[in-house]
Structures are given as C-alpha cells and as structure tokens.
What we know:
This protein starts with a helix and ends with a helix. The radius of gyration is 19 Å and the shape is globular. Helix 3 packs across helix 11 (224-255). The model has no long low-confidence stretch (mean pLDDT 84). Helices cover 82% and strands 0% of the residues. The chain has helices spanning 2-25, 29-47, 52-78, 85-90, 96-119, 124-137, 141-147, 153-179, 184-195, 202-219, 224-255, 258-271. The protein is mostly helical. It has one domain. The protein is built from 12 helices and no strands.
Amino acid sequence: MLTVVTSTLHLYREALHATSRSLVRGWLAIPAVIVFTLLMLLAHQIARPLGMLGGFLLGAVNACLIGATLSVIEQAIKGMRPLTIGDVIESMGHYFWDVISVGFVLWIPTMLLDTSLRANPDSQFLVTACLLLVFILLNPAPEVIYLTRHDSPLDVLKRSYDFVLDNWIEWFLPMALVLAPLGLSLFFKLSSQLGRGAGLDFIQLVFVPFTVLSAWLTDFGISAELTGMIALLLTPPLMVGMLIFRGHLFIALSATSRRQRLYQSQFHDSAR
C-alpha cells in the first residue's frame, strides 16, 4: 500500500515539475486565453439575436477557440522554445473539425436528454446521472484530441473511455482532493455542465476554475466582492495551469501501466 502511495505521489510530483517548466515556456497562453474569452463573449452578443443561425455561429466560434486553446497548450507542453504571438495566431483553426465532430456526436444524446427532461421533469435524476457518466468516461477527451492519433470522433470517445478505465484513480484523485472539501453539490453542478460537452465548451472551461476558486475563497471567509475580483484575476493562469497539468499527467499515465509505475517507484526509492 505504501508503494502505491509513493508511486502516485511521485507521478504527481513529476507532473507538477513538468507543468512549472511548461508555464515558464508557455506563459503567453495566459493572455491568449483572456483574449479568447473576450472573443467568445463577443460572439455570444452577436449571436444572441440571430436565433438558430446564432447557434451555428457560436458552435463554430467555440470549436475554433477550443481548438486554438488545445494547440497552444500542446505547444507549451511539447515545445522546446518559448511560445510566441505568432504561435498563438497560427493556433487558430487547429483541431477545429475534431472539436466540431465530437461535439456533434455528443449533441444528439444531450438533445434527447433535454427533451426527456422537458417532457418529464421527474427525470432530472436520470439526466444528472447520465451527464455524470459522460463527465467521467469522456473527461480526458480534450487530451485525447491533441495528444494522441485518432481516426474519428468515435475513436476519440473510445480512447477516452479506455484511458479512464485504466487510470481512473490517478486521473480523478487530484480533482477529488480539490472538490471534496467544497461538497457534493458543487461536484454534481460541475459534472452536469461539463458532461454536456466533454470539456469542449470554452465557456465551461473558463467557468470551472472560476467557480472552484470562488468557492474556496468564500470558504475562507473572503467577501463576495473581493472573491469576484480575485477569481477574475486568477482564473486565466489557473485555467492554463490546470490544462497543462492534465496534459502532462495524461502523457505520463498513457506511457506506463500502474504496475510499471510501481516498479519504477521502487527503483527510484532505492536509487536515492
């Protein structure tokens, strides 16, 4: 049991060290995310009076910004040089069709769930359970898109499902440690929202760190006004750091099995 804990802690320590190096190299991702957020808010204002056409516009803008964000994070993780403004500009359009296709596959069952909820309000529990299942099984879908080779949106979903089955403890433990003190209601709220887009909704991607950070600050007794200001200021770096950490953790978990990590941990301890 002690070996399991030691290997897991070593895994997170290495991922955190890699995240810090990537943040130094890719700090420009933080202002890029701020610009992307402003563009998304502008798109919402433009699309609001356009009805169905506005929905298509938002879908396209969301896919463009999510794809660009994943591309920027990928360069921060894999790049050997500092991120530049040119890299951010060139990221626009990357992974666009991957995000669109996965989003379309998920849109159909989500629409059926919403229809069921409107027809029968008592089905709220079933809808929440389904969204929780999607949130869990497709949680690493963004990392699958930009860190693996895949042939189709269904392949993205399958690879995400397989990854979770193999690594669910190590993948979800950091999230559990952050959310557990805040209560189950916040967890179900976040899982219901993120489950609708498998982490590929840009507004939700910003909303998660903002909500979690606000909840922690509130628990520390900080006033609502000051909480909002601090959360707005810290959300972009927290979002980028979270995505980079997830990317490094995904790479580490994909490269080795749990048994291999246990063996490597024993070797690492004996070498110290």
